[in-house]
Amino acid sequence: MTTNTITAANTHSHSAGRIDFARAAPKVFRSLIGFDAAAREGLDPALVELIQIRASHLNHCAYCLHMHTNDARKAGESEDRLHMVAVWREARHFFSARECAALALTEAVTLIADGGVPDDVYAEAAAQFDEQELAHVLSLIFTINTWNRIALSTAKVAGTDERR
């Protein structure tokens, strides 16, 4: 890629020919923003970002991965932990038991077609979170999977952040 091509790609948040979802379906978009905000309520911001980063890895969503790793850094997350999210099972000592349970649940829900949510994964999450927290963790997993699908379907370009 030439410098001009990179510059051109970074000035547009979606590919030519793809819809601007927020503009085309503003009521739906605003509803998703509200759902996302409600899902986060009461959850540790670091946990929120870890869930969003892991789902974005699994969904191959570079746009959301870039956004949420930047958000995590701004919130004080360490580079070491950010680098270990994709391999958290091999680096459990970087994460708390709650975070590991949330990451396992994120994987199971994100990859639900591969075998559902195993009982042991759900039970561990239920042991780490009270009922309301668990509902919020699940809701956050649902929202990031929706955002990933929107970004991928509309060809959002990593490195652009439309929230600004």
What characteristics describe this protein?
disordered N terminus, 164 residues, single chain, 9 helices, mainly alpha
Report a brief summary of the structure.
The chain is mostly helical and 164 residues long.
Question: How do the strands and helices of this protein lay out in sequence?
Answer:
Blueprint: H1 3-10, H2 21-24, H3 26-40, H4 45-58, H5 62-74, H6 79-84, H7 97-110, H8 119-128, H9 131-153
Helix pairs in contact: 3-9, 4-5, 4-7, 4-9, 7-8, 7-9
Q: Could you describe the 3D structure shown?
A:
With 164 residues, the protein is mainly alpha-helical. Helix content is 65%, strand content 0%. The protein has helices spanning 3-10, 21-24, 26-40, 45-58, 62-74, 79-84, 97-110, 119-128, 131-153. Helix 7 (97-110) packs across helix 9. The protein starts with a helix and ends in an 11-residue tail after the last helix.
